[in-house]
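input
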Amino acid sequence: MNWQNVAFDWNQARAFLVTAEEGTLSAAARALGLTQPTLGRQVAALESDLGVTLFERVGRSLSLTQAGLELLEHVRAMGEAASRVSLAASGQSQSIEGKVSITATNVMATYHLPPLLKQLREMAPAIEIEIVASNEVRDLQRREADIAIRHGRPEQPDLIAKLVGETSAHLYAAKEYLDRVGRPETPSDLAGADFIGFEHPERLLPALQGLGLPVNRKNFKLVSASGTVMIALAKQGLGIVPLIRYDADLIPELEPVLPELAPIPIWLVTHRELHSSRRIRLVFDFLAESFAQR
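output
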């Protein structure tokens, strides 16, 4: 076989297959546990790579083009083969048992981990997961957790880190708040705005001021150590909150305010036991693949 000619992206093919089966991008996104924009990008990337149009929009549904119909037969066979591989692998996964602790921010733990852990339960039902929901950076070297989901790369040489995605930081506010005070068009429009911040907003101020935002400690009328509390306060129209787009995309009540503040990486981190613990390796690899697909 000429392996150089085998350059097919299974994630794109799977996105096409499920969209063809479900009939709409929204239904396919729900079936795969992805956001609709992510799924749409995967389908568009496959069309671009192949140089063909696979779907035509008919009302709210999608209809396969002739090229899409021809490709569907082959991709469906790939899907059946992938299912057989998963079944074979799950036989080994189900024999792995024990506890694995995962630390993440409370927003990540609330909104992102539950659907992923539901999939993990089906694949490895004997693994026990402990979620350490905290905005504090836990010490993996002292075994405060086995796996961490972080937005900064660790500096300790004994830790293993893998970049699994990238998002961005933005300012967000509820429609109610923006209808009341107006929608800022420039950073200077935020001089008198109410902000919702973390427990110590003075730590964030230099970064915001460095981006040209005319804010000081008096702008922060509400503070909390909990990201989920900050979101709840923002949804009530109590002010502007800095959030990661990856999180805010799941909160339809909030609107972005001005362009992005900064790119934010998503790191998966663990300790050296990854090389010797089958259960930690399984969970680490599963999370890495899941985040990379989003």
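quick obs: The mean pLDDT is 85.
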